Amino acid sequence: MIFNPFTVARRLRKIGLIGINQRNADYVLRYNKRQFYPRVDDKLLTKKLAIEHGLPVPELFAVVREEHEIKEVHAKLAEREKFVVKPAHGSGGDGIVVIVGRRGDKYRRSNGVLMTADEFNHHLSNSLSGLFSLGGQADSVLIEYCVEFDPVFDHVSFRGVPDVRIIIFQGYPVMAMIRLPTRMSDGKANLHQGAIGVGIDLPSGRTCKGVWGNELVTEHPDTEHSIIGMDIPHWDQLMMIAATASEMSGLGYVGVDIVLDKVHGPMILELNARPGLAIQIANGNGLQHRLEAVEKLKQLAPTAAERVAFAREHFGTV
């Protein structure tokens, strides 16, 4: 079969696939004012704003801002068997440590490896120095509730917590996917580290297609269970949370990441002002036609409920 670049280009235009340069020029730079970036780049500020707006987030156990606070944090966590450590300005999952238990004075990570108190302190110190932060800037560290994912995902996740990403444009949900951790991703729901992205049909909340790296998949590579046709729990609530969170951020083009806890239900994990584009491959659809449909509206709907209703009516995948 002869490769024809013009045929491929026409096909990509037809489905409305956008690239990173178009995303940045036409949407990120145009609709995201720089003054609002700290609201999503600083996870501590994001959490505070979400609480102020009545949006659910994982409980915050401790914050470490200075080196001298590192030794004190062990006492604050003495009664905690499980928690998550994350840099406030981290990116791509770097610097996140998930603790799932203890053995004496050691902490057990989600991959089963034990971490000594000195190793824990060293990690916190590296985080404060900016090793994991955007631009290498000095950082602070959040220690928060460890999400226990909804049992519906037991067979399609490997040692980690899946999360749902919904891209919001001008307050309207335009595309969604669930990210499933794998052995390759070391239990992290990050596509660049080897997690699976599975598209979600906005009207139904049902998974439709999957991508793992550059490979289209229908099964989880570690569990061999189907990832297609799953109904995402609390789908109505997830859509409303995402649409409301975009208002909180002040950004016109934003990705909202939500986890599903088996006890507490949906909770906002973080927001992203530059959400990746693999979500298009996971859905088998491009973003451009949906973004243009919102831009063509003569007036934006005033409530999150109306914007969600519009998305469910117009942006079906299956």
What would you note in describing this structure?
With 318 residues, the protein is α+β, with helices and mostly antiparallel strands. The strands form two sheets. The protein has a seven-stranded antiparallel β-sheet. Residues 1-6 have low confidence and may be disordered. Helix 7 packs across helix 10. A hairpin with a 4-residue loop joins strand 9 (196-201) and strand 10 (206-212). The protein is globular and about 60 Å long. The protein folds into two domains: 16-55 and 149-314, ATP-grasp fold, B domain (D-amino Acid Aminotransferase, Chain A, domain 1); 60-144, Dna Ligase, domain 1 (2-Layer Sandwich), CATH 3.30.1490. The protein contains ten helices and 13 strands.
Largest sheet: 7 strands, antiparallel
The CATH homology group name of the largest domain: ATP-grasp fold, B domain
Total strand count, please?
A: 13
Query: What's the CATH class of the largest domain, please?
Result: Alpha Beta
Instruction: Indicate how many domains the architecture comprises.
Output: 2
Question: How are the strands of the largest sheet arranged?
Answer: 11-10-9-8-7-12-13
Mean pLDDT: 92
How far do the termini sit from each other?
29 Å
How large, in whole angstroms, is the Cα Rg?
Answer: 20 Å
The helix/strand series, from N terminus to C terminus, equals HHHHEHEEEEHEEEEEEHEEHHH
Tell me what the CATH architecture of the largest domain is. 2-Layer Sandwich
Overall 3D shape: globular
So how many helices?
10
- Helix- and strand-based class? alpha+beta
> Helix amount, in percent?
25-40%
Instruction: Name the beta content range.
Output: 15-25%
The unreliable regions are 1-6
The CATH topology of the largest domain corresponds to D-amino Acid Aminotransferase, Chain A, domain 1
